[in-house]
User: Fold these one by one.
Assistant:
Number 1:
Amino acid sequence: MAGTQRYLRYIIFALICLILLFFISSSSTVPTANWPGYASENPTDAVPSPQSPAGQNGSEKPATSPNGGAKLPPATASGDRMNATFVTLARNSDLWEIAKSIRNVEDRFNRKFNYDWVFLNDDDFNDEFKKVTTALVSGKTKYGKIPTEHWSFPDFIDQDRAAKVREEMKEKKIIYGDSISYRHMCRYESGFFFRHPLMLDYEWYWRVEPSIELYCDINYDTFKFMADNKKKYSFVLSLYEYVDTIPTLWDATKNFTKTHPQHIVKDNSLKFLSDDDGENYNHCHFWSNFEIGNLDWLRSDAYIDYFNSLDHAGGFFYERWGDAPVHSVAAGLMLKKDEIHFFNDIAYYHVPFTHCPTGEQYRLDHKCHCNPKENFDWNGYSCLSRYFELNNMAKPEGYEKEQ
């Protein structure tokens, strides 16, 4: 009896093994799937890839998106480079804000062109600032200290009068009205940055401030564009200056033009600056936290004479003259109107204003990420319409939607 039971167990075990072997062999015969985009062993069984739709012949392959398969520009563009540099006025405490700006400029433009970058400070730059910025910039970096005489009160300024003005502006809550360092900065940007020894090596500059943003790819050399088209000054934003910061700037300018009429060129941009043939200033100016310009023009006798005249008038300290209206008035009177350029294609942000290029196709082609509804160009406080009218330029298609 025991032997019979043992044989039955062997038979049941053998049956179980046979059943398991059957299922294993059956599972191994499941056909392999042909995934899209890969050819199977039998070409006739291949599943057509999205790039080669079934039934289409020829070498032309249609794009799979409405952008037409646009390619990224080369990491380093071909061609000669201009004698040009970026320039930034910053302090060590600005490091992480200027790092953001550098990253924007490098990603959108300079990784293709590798231009140098000059950093200027009224103090010594520390090692951390140098290490971080050098690592971010694709060109060479240079670090300069501003001479004390360029960042201090000139001996002809009445310190008591200047202090009283600052106190009055503080009470009126005028932006930077009580700041001494801001006044030194405006004076320095107006009359000295282009004369720093590090800047004397260059012919062209692009000014970059901390915390700016570039919204679109720039696939051409802006410096070469300026040179080839005989431009000497450029901008992306223009607006009205705070009236209380420059009450006598135009009077000082008219005194200068009477003394130095030889510096005022024909076919200039006076109508951008004045609505009554130069009698009064309408306060329009180019926002100078962005500018690409010619350093030889700033170092010219005409501009130096203008700056020296303004400096001795005292308005940098007795009022709060900004470098933006100073540069703008100088460019408007001393340059021909066709020597000033508006870069519609350089999308730019500096708190609180945005320039987002007008024109949807341009924004798509250049991978812009700005919101056109935030574009300041056609805002009532913008002066861009005046610039277009002065130069008989047609406003870009679609500008009405951004007013």
Number 2:
Amino acid sequence: MESGKQLTGTLALAVFTAALGSLQYGYSLGVINAPQKVIERHYGRSLGVWSDKAAVLSENSTKEDELLEAGAHPDVVMYWSLSVAIFSIGGMFSSFLVGFVGDLRGRIKGMLMVNVLAVAAGLLMGLCKMWKPHIMVISGRAVMGLYCGLTSGLVPMYIGEIAPKAYRGALGTLHQLAIVIGILISQVIGLDFLLGNDDMWPLLLGLSGAPAVLQSLLLPLCPESPRYLYIKLGKEQEARKSLRRLKGEYVPTSDLEEMRREKEEAEKEAKVSILSLIRSTVYRQQLFVALMMHLSQQFSGINAIFYYSTAIFSRAGVSQPVYATIGVGVVNTIFTLVSVALVDKAGRRTLTLVGLGGMCCCAVAMTVGLRLQNEYAWMSYVSMTAIFLFVCFFEIGPGPIPWFIVAELFSQGPRPAAIALAGCCNWTSNFIVGMTFQYIEVFLGSYVFILFAGLLLVFTMFTYLRVPETKGKTFEEISAVFQKGRKKPLNSKDDTELEQLKTVTEA
């Protein structure tokens, strides 16, 4: 029976179970937006800087500048900003631990261990009214950030290692699909007539820990990564058993042979620490490509759209902007499904190029629309259409591909360190965009998306010139593409460097 072609029930269960972690990540990203005003009022009450009585007085008064909004108070602004930003800070720190957690007891036990963080975070936020809501929510968001930093590395690592070569792209894209479904779920149940209201918002935030409970029940039924078993632990029989569970009854000789060769390579190169990966010239090109792809995902301006889409839609004259934002979430999900269908046919490089180039054009159109909508009423439709198309192009390539291409660019030795570095780069740039966009918007006004258009043009050129196609290639073949670009005389130097890396990690 041909290996690598079959999709089995066990493989589907394993991928679905792992992707629950990504769903939780998406939910946590999106959940904080809808109930902002409600939460700010609770913060204001808890801090003693705002009361319902003050709100009633200011509504009845003619002055606009009185305490109508709790969110206008500097203390509330500070605690609210911290509630949003601490999530990214937690992710930045914990993404460095992905390799360590993944290798400690294996990918399955690693995901099980980190679920403790998700459940704890859910409880902190769900029970926040029992004490000071601002402290409880910020603590819960910090712990959830730690969880999401780990899961955003562990999930693509596990799926990338268990996926048959023919479906590696499509299954890798499911991480991003689960994220956007998580965002969409949080937007829908965050509507004020569901959970985004005065009574139910702690439950809305607390539910971000719910997928972890389901995942914890399903993980023991999933097979461990055969690559981890064979290459890291040297357990060939267990790896063979795991392959059979994942792919059904077939002769796993060719898969084991590929792993054996990768194990030999891994023994030659040794397990590479984060510091030695940064210093190493051997992996410099792969690392540069991996980090640039993650930077292109975050600095494309997509998070500016997600964080502030409601404000952008109301400026464009939409009477119910929250529904337009949910519309963006739906489009987001549909086009991630398109990417799942296309990624193993069209290839990673092509989809990334189409996505980045399309987003660049949309950013220009958005700027023109926002700039001229006061002169021409129909220009608001131009900027809204541009927002929807911007999201479509993002989900075709730049959204899903960076998450799993890192696992494809690196062999077993440096892979955990590379995923940790790429994850940290992603979270850091996410944090920078989230913190600075409001200030940049004030400074640049309707020209804000021209800045992103410029960045997107740079990323499109980089992808065209430097990113190789990884579709259908083994890890060995991908590595050879980078080595081909290197000058021959360096080989002996590379060999001595690999030897040094090996002795450093053995020491």
Number 3:
Amino acid sequence: MNEHYQHRHKAYSRNWGGPWRKTPGRVLGTALVRLYQLTLSGFVGNSCRHMPTCSEYAYEAIARHGLWAGGWMGLFRVARCGPGGTSGIDNVAEVLSPRYRWFTPWRYREIGRRAGGNR
């Protein structure tokens, strides 16, 4: 294929398309999120209160920060999406501060709390 055709007909993906290391944990985590998006997401409906959606957030968080940190970030994001939670634009942090360590997973709940403006 020529370059012009490839540029015009670029595949669309709702998930983050940036570069990320394809480690086994990240591939497994993003595959599970993608499986959810292709199967159960249609039954749950499009009612997420954030942009990007919770599954898109989890995909990007796992791709950027690995299965452990990204998984916790995605879990706490879904928890924030409930009644009384935040809403609005809540992007994944590009770099995590040294405060977030693997042995302190409860700290990941603080990421993105003030992004929605409700808190």
